[in-house]
Amino acid sequence: MVAIREHRFPFLVKVHNWNRFNVNTGGTLVEKCCHFFDLMNLITGAVPLRVMASGSQDVNHLDENYDGKVPDIIDNAYVIVEYDNGVRAMLDLCMFAEGGKNEQEICVVGNYGKAEAFVPESVVRFGTRTNGREGVEQIEVHDDRIKYEGLHHGSSFLEHLEFLDAVRNHGERPPIASLYDGLLSVAVGVAAQLSIEIGKPVNMQDILKFGIDR
C-alpha cells in the first residue's frame, strides 16, 4: 500500500490566474497532482490499471470572478489507483489545510514493514512488523547541494541539475523521468478527474487507447 497526503494552502496568484479553470489545466488532479501520481508509479514500479476518485470544490476561489465566470477547480479529493502487481495507492489532497505541521507525507506499507517520509520536517521513519513500534527508526534527510529550499524544499533545484546533466551528456545518459513517465502520470490525473465527473471507476486502457505496457 502507498499513501500520499498533501495538505497545503490554496493555489497562489498566477499570471492572469490561468489555472483557475479546468478548461485551461485539465483540472487540479492533472495540473498539480500529476507529480504525486508519478511518485506512485515510481514507488510501485508497476502499471496503473484502474482509478477511482471523489472530490469537489468546497472552499477555495469561490469569491473570485473572471469575465463573469467563477473558478471551477477542485480543492479537495481522494484518489485510489490500482496497479497490475496488486499494489494500491491513495492520494489525500486538501488545499485549505494550512493548519498542519507537514505539507506532504508519504507512507509505504508491505508485508515486511512500513516507511514514512515527511516534508518540510525532512524526516524519514521506518520499521518492521517483527520489531513493532519500539523498533521504529528515524533519520533526518538533508542534501548539501541545496542552499535554499523554497516552496519545493529544494527539489526544483535538483531537478534542474539533473536536466542540465542530461543536456550536457548529449543524450548518452537519459533523464531521470522519461517522456513515458510524464505521459502516464498525466493520464492517471485525467482518469481521476473523469472518475469524479462520472462517479465511477475509470480503466486506464480507456484513457490511453494505445496501451500502457512499459
Automatic annotation (TrEMBL):
Gene3D superfamilies: Dihydrodipicolinate Reductase, domain 2 (3.30.360.10). Residues 1-204 form the Gfo/Idh/MocA-like oxidoreductase C-terminal domain. It comes from the Eukaryota. InterPro entries: Gfo-Idh-MocA_inositol_DH, Gfo/Idh/MocA-like_OxRdtase_C. This is Gfo/Idh/MocA-like oxidoreductase C-terminal domain-containing protein. It comes from Ceratopteris richardii (Triangle waterfern). The lineage of its organism: Eukaryota, Viridiplantae, Streptophyta, Embryophyta, Tracheophyta.
